[in-house]
């Protein structure tokens, strides 16, 4: 939990540093304050002293990292930077073309399904027609084409299953899946969202190798720290904020979801959690609110996972048997056709997507505070019910 406090301190520290760049040089004061808070809090058993100490420590760590970049902070603090465009390496281009060709085996005559398959698997969104792209945008589900946490984890899981079928021990399968996973990220041009997701997956999958329990929250926190210490201005990047926030929401949603009975209830809960985490960021950055995303994601997230997994196996199978690749690609195309139909149906709903005034910091903070309070209430009620039943 202390890592989460430090992450929150880094976020607040960047905002404060953007307003007062000269404060970056005062990091020793924050370090001293952290030490004093720890000593006084531990000695007098003050409530919340760990939160205060770790917050000051996180601020000190942030200011120490950005102190040499004071001039850079003056130029672009807390502003929407131009999105960073990932560029494929020339060395990876032949492999990318080969995978793109394998992903189209057997479905060449269905141009739309072929384009969607390639866009989901390889991030080739330029293949989508404007009308189809608009349907996914207006249904609040265009994120399924951004190679991020969902895609990377599905590819990692698929590789692990294939390795275990090849008699690799389960404890080592995660580590063995990392080289091809990073090759996949490199092949698609190493977009920042995919690199962040692969880094988090690496921390998560390597834990069993060292006889440690895989901890998604710890992996998220360490990745957050590494990314923002390497480039503190990334906290102002919309894509970075969106990917980290949605992933954290899904991690925090696991515990409340455990008390839901049916599989459909859990799927709806996770769909809502993913939408609710990203809605304020979209409203702040783009002035759009997409409640239709709750309905669309309920069907599209599982479908996208199945499409990615099938597409990976199909592309790999294409190097051995084109017949097997054709069957797998047709299965992936069947799923993507359903995804396209759902997106168009949701986009046609009048309430699915509408423009709003850009949300300010206060509105976003109130939204997230209400979500955290709701989660705390669900967890508290679950504990109370367990105590009443003697669990």
Describe the model.
The structure is a single chain. This protein has 16 helices and 2 strands. It is mostly helical and 391 residues long. The two termini are 25 Å apart. A two-stranded antiparallel sheet has the order 1-2. 72% of the residues lie in helices and 1% in strands. The longest helix is centred in the C-terminal third of the chain and has 29 residues, at 361-389. It has helices spanning 2-19, 27-44, 49-66, 70-75, 93-102, 111-122, 130-138, 149-165, 170-187, 192-206, 216-230, 238-257, 263-286, 292-317, 322-347, 361-389; strands spanning 288-289, 354-355. Mean pLDDT is 76; it is low at 73-88 and 387-391. Helix 5 (93-102) crosses helix 14, helix 8 (149-165) packs parallel to helix 14 (292-317) and helix 13 (263-286) crosses helix 14.
This entry's quaternary arrangement is: single chain
Largest sheet properties = 2 strands, antiparallel
State the end-to-end distance. Answer: 25 Å
Helix count from the secondary structure assignment: 16
Q: What order do the SSEs take from the amino end to the carboxyl end, as H and E?
A: HHHHHHHHHHHHHEHHEH
State which percent range the strand residues make up: under 5%
Can you give the mean pLDDT?
76
Radius of gyration: 23 Å
Helix content: over 70%
Q: Give the class from helix and strand content and strand pairing.
A: mainly alpha
What is the strand arrangement across the widest sheet?
1-2
Give the strand tally: 2
Residue runs with pLDDT of under 50 for 5 or more positions: 73-88, 387-391
Shape: globular
